[in-house]
Specification:
With 252 residues, the protein is mainly alpha-helical. It is built from nine helices and four strands, in the order ββββααααααααα. It has a single domain, classed as Tetratricopeptide repeat domain (Serine Threonine Protein Phosphatase 5, Tetratricopeptide repeat, Alpha Horseshoe). The strands form two sheets. A two-stranded antiparallel sheet has the order 1-3. Strands 2-4 form a two-stranded antiparallel sheet. 40% of the residues are buried.
Length: 252
């Protein structure tokens, strides 16, 4: 059985990761991020998330965000505080399925950040990544691709070619290329992401095995079963090692 493709995402009670099921219709979902949060967690294997809010929590979050929005409109509608509120509200609207409204909010937040922080700021890349997710959710991969490519370029320049978020962007772009049937374009991106995460593995936990699984799925699609099996075996070793570390940390 070929593996599920699962992406990196950044925590903050936001959204599900970027997913593409091998052998299924190619409808990827892009992970969503919280600006300024470099740490990464992972979507669960079954597609769920321990951070998913219940209905009451969602209503409360919506009330708070709308109150923040009204206050920002009164004080300074072009402030970075407004951009942050628009960003969080856009995530909520996306969770609620209001994609058109979510896109409008992202675009407004993007315009504010580009003006205040410059077009190549890492926070701009966060919004671009989420816009790509919206376009992919609509099946518009042609629109999603340049957004992800720009996200990667910003992170490589602003954060460095070996940053964990650069690895995330490599993984996300590789998944999109794979969804478009561009395996040859996707493969080197996975290889770069794995190289970065292998180096960072001691300090950033829980993501290397997922990218290995993603790459394995691509290799299966390319007919390179033996190489895919090696990637799967490597991922199992990484998961086992991470599980042992968690057990050790829990032992008094």
């Amino acid at each position: 059985m070929r593996p599920m493709l699962v992406s990196l995402r950044v925590p903050a009670a936001v959204c599900a990761g970027f997913v593409l099921l091998a052998g299924c219709p190619k409808q990827p979902e892009f992970g969503m991020e919280a600006p300024g949060r470099p740490a990464i967690t992972w979507k669960h294997e079954d597609g769920g998330s321990s951070e998913k809010p219940n209905a009451q929590a969602e209503k409360e979050a919506e009330r708070e965000l709308l109150a923040e929005y009204r206050a920002a409109e009164r004080n300074n509608p072009d402030s970075l505080a407004m951009a942050g509120t628009l960003y969080r509200l856009a995530i909520l609207r996306r969770q609620q399925g209001a994609l058109a409204e979510s896109e409008r909010l992202y675009l407004r937040a993007l315009a504010i950040r580009e003006k205040a922080q410059g077009p190549n700021h890492p926070d701009v890349a966060v919004i671009l990544n989420n816009l790509a997710g919206l376009k992919a959710a609509e099946g518009n991969y042609d629109a999603a691709q340049p957004l992800l490519e720009r996200t990667l370029a910003i992170r490589e320049t602003a954060l460095g070619s070996d940053d964990v978020l650069t690895a995330e962007s490599l993984n996300n772009l590789a998944l999109l290329y794979a969804a478009q049937g561009e395996a040859q374009a996707a493969e080197p991106l996975y290889q770069r992401a794995i190289a970065i995460l292998e180096k960072k593995h001691g300090s950033v936990k829980g993501e290397l095995d997922r990218v290995l699984d993603n790459y394995a799925a691509l290799l299966y699609e390319m007919g390179q079963d033996s190489e895919a099996e090696k990637m799967e075996a490597h991922a199992r070793v990484v998961r086992a090692a991470e599980g042992q570390k968690v057990d050790d940390q829990r032992t008094p």
